[in-house]
Amino acid sequence: MDPVRNKTLEMSADSSASRVSNGVEIRELERSEWPEQLLEIPQPPERLWVRGALPPAGHKLLAVVGSRAMTRYGQEACEKLIIGLAGYPVSIVSGLALGVDTCAHKAALAAGLHTLAFPGSGLDDSILYPRSNRPFAEEILKAGGGMISEYEPATPSHVRYFPERNRLMVGISDAVLVIEAGEKSGTLITARLASEYNRDLLCVPHRIGDPHAFGPHLFIRLGAALVSDPLHILEALHITPREGPASGVAPSDLEDAEKVVWNMLEEPKTRDEILRAGADSTDSPQAGELLTALVALELRGLIREEFGAWHRV
Predict the structure, then answer these.
(1) What is the pLDDT of residues 70-98, one digit of tens each?
(2) N or C terminus of the chain with fewer C-beta within 10 Å?
(3) pTM to 2 decimals?
């Protein structure tokens, strides 16, 4: 038996079916409750513990992986792609680590999506890793998300557990999205598992020469799907995009600044053109309000930026 797990068993009575940590039950799943996809992988877990809520029935699961040393570009791409899935039956799966993992979970919460974390440890508050993310783990649970692990609840993190949990993240998901990964990144192993487990692999493109582009560009060359828009993710997950309103008809619930931006976009305009048009009008909202309205309309799927210009969808 693994000496780390053995020591944990001696320290606590975690072999029981459930326990409570910080007011939230950690319980062992009955085999009948296991997500079916985890039963199909080559090395399925022996036991599973869950804390919080598993993904709702009918949801597609998207695993989001990438560097712990996330770049600003990686953060923006992660947030844009996940927030663009708001309102769709999608659950975001990641590993609760720093960097891309945390960004993915936070973007999911911001979009009102269910999110499921696979820490490289047990699920008890006292041993969740990284320690700095323990308060954030509470946010996930309060928002209706969940955490899942194959380790006893009080099992501390161990370097070997992270690649082990990654196979479960890939196994439970319908597709895997790679945000960024350097030449020696562990994300490369996770991405290869997607191919072995017959999961769709999606990758975010980067600038030529960017060291974080090594993984995404490698896998795109090998046949992974290039993803630059939330619609690309919906296509991979076989989810039909919502029908938007007719492009010439303004939705009835727009705020004042949103109506101004909507009316400006009778023809596509760049962000600078929108701001200049606002500055030239005495009745127009301030630049900050216009930018906020621009983001709000994009998040609702009413407008989109292509080739540097914004236009109605």
Answers:
(1) 999 999 999 999 999 998 999 999 999 99
(2) N
(3) 0.74
66-75 residue pLDDT tens: 999 999 999 9
Domain topology for 256-312: Arc Repressor Mutant, subunit A (1.10.10)
Task: Specify the CATH number of the domain 3-236.
Answer: 3.40.50.450
What SS3 string covers the chain?
CCHHHHHHHHHCCCCCCEEEECCEEEEECCHHHCCHHHHCCCCCCCCCEEEECCCCCCCEEEEEECCCCCCHHHHHHHHHHHHCCCCCCEEEEECCCCCHHHHHHHHHHHCCCEEEECCCCCCCHHHCCCHHHHHHHHHHHHCCCEEEECCCCCCCCCCCHHHHHHHHHHHHCCEEEECCCCCCCCHHHHHHHHHHCCCEEEECCCCCCCHHHHHHHHHHHCCCEECCCHHHHHHHCCCCCCCCCCCCCCCCCCCHHHHHHHHHCCCCECHHHHHHHHHCCCCCCCHHHHHHHHHHHHHCCCEEEECCEEEEC
The residues of the chain that CATH labels 1.10.10.10 are 256-312
Q: What is the pLDDT of residue 267?
A: 87
Residues of the chain with CATH 3.40.50.450: 3-236
